[in-house]
Prior knowledge:
Layout: H1 3-31, E1 35-40, E2 44-50, E3 56-58, E4 64-65, E5 71-74, E6 78-85, E7 88-95, E8 106-110
Antiparallel strand pairs: 1-2, 2-3, 2-4, 5-6, 6-7, 7-8
Amino acid sequence: MPSTLKFVALSLSLIPAGLAYGQTEASTSSTAPVAYVYVARPTHIDGFAASSSGKLTPVPGSPFANTDVTDLSVTKKFLFGLTANGGGNKLTSYPINSKGSLTKPNTLWTS
């Protein structure tokens, strides 16, 4: 078999493996979020699960009502929100569960 024909045969045999790997990777990444995104609104917080392709899907329970935070900071386990009202400040923490939902808040500090 000429060397050119061997190269073509080898190249064609590698194509299906590459396609299968790409499909597996795409199907896995579409089910598990790579990050959670939170947006503070005047009356609530919107929560989204972000896929590796950038698609945003609301997390269970979103929007989270009766929140009046103006600034957010997020770790893997907590969302911290600052409320500035009437000259005072309040720092509240919202535990984040495994699916990205926020649970009952805890007031950490009030001035």
